[in-house]
Amino acid sequence: QLQLQESGPGLVKPSETLSLTCTVSGGSISSSSYYWGWIRQPPGKGLEWIGTIYYSGSTFYSPSLKSRVTISVDTSKSQFSLKLSSVTAADTAVYYCARYCYGSWQYYFDYWGQGTLVTVSS
Amino acid sequence: EIVLTQSPGTLSLSPGERATLSCRASQSVTSSYLAWYQQKPGQAPRLLIYGASSRATGIPDRFSGSGSGTDFTLTISRLEPEDFAVYYCQQYGSSPPWTFGQGTKVESK
């Protein structure tokens, strides 16, 4: 059974960089059939797609966050990571990592991490 | 940029009733790329429907999806107590590559 687990600091100071890692277990991060994504959810609000990465390193970012986001992958560790710079209180959210199935008429996020709350506060 | 608008924002229904949730796209969306998710408090979203109308593994047949182009619908034929949750549509394909609707909350009347 595939599992994804987010890890990283739960508290980040304003103007600093938020860094999270998602560890994938029970399956290969290097499969050509999947993308790996970050999605966030501010308290009491809806889901916001942040960005997605392919195992080869190709990335796609939300236009609204593109200037502050970097997503990378380390296939040797079965991990992909998120960095969000110059954070403000508006970046306080539960951050999810998820797998996106791509191809063969199947296009969807099927496996999600449990989510990790990151609070931006001094 | 494709924007997904879900309506209504909140749906107040009783168990056993039918729920009809709408997801409208600002531009045409390929049906294959349209999915629906259910999210309960404190939980990650769960895939319900993909390809606009295909149920994911283990999803009861009271959930159904339909639509094409810019108008998509999620229907819950008879609400069970565990169906009260927030539902999101999501598309893949056009700039930006991935977007979510703002969600519809189905609450118990």
| Overall 3D form of chain B | globular
Please tally the helical runs of chain A, counting DSSP H or I stretches of 4 or more residues: 0
Quaternary status of these chains? Answer: heterodimer
Proportion in helices of chain B: under 10%
**Main beta sheet of chain A: strand number and arrangement?**
7 strands, mixed
List the chains of the largest interface with their residue counts: A-B, 24 and 26 residues
Name the beta content range of chain B: over 45%
Spatial gap, N to C terminus of chain A: 39 Å
- Characterize the biggest β-sheet of chain B: 7 strands, mixed
Features:
heterodimer, A: 122 residues, mainly beta, seven-stranded mixed beta sheet, B: seven-stranded mixed beta sheet, 10 strands, 56% strand
Structure description:
- With 122 residues, chain A is mostly beta strands.
- Chain A has no helices and 11 strands.
- Chain A has strands at 3-7, 11-12, 18-25, 34-41, 48-53, 59-61, 69-74, 79-84, 93-103, 106-112, 116-120.
- In chain A, strands 2, 4, 5, 6, 9, 10 and 11 form a 7-stranded mixed beta sheet that branches. A 4-stranded antiparallel beta sheet of chain A has the order 1-3-8-7, with no helix packed on it.
- The radius of gyration of chain A is 14 Å and the shape is globular.
- With 109 residues, chain B is mostly beta strands.
- Chain B is 0% helix and 56% strand.
- Chain B is built from no helices and 10 strands.
- In chain B, the strands form 2 sheets. In chain B, strands 2, 4, 5, 6, 8, 9 and 10 form a 7-stranded mixed beta sheet that branches. In chain B, strands 1-3-7 form a 3-stranded antiparallel beta sheet, with no helix packed on it.
- In chain B, strand 4 and strand 5 (46-50) form a beta hairpin.
- Chain B is globular, with a radius of gyration of 13 Å.
- The mean pLDDT of chain B is 96.
- The chains are: A mainly beta (122), B mainly beta (109).
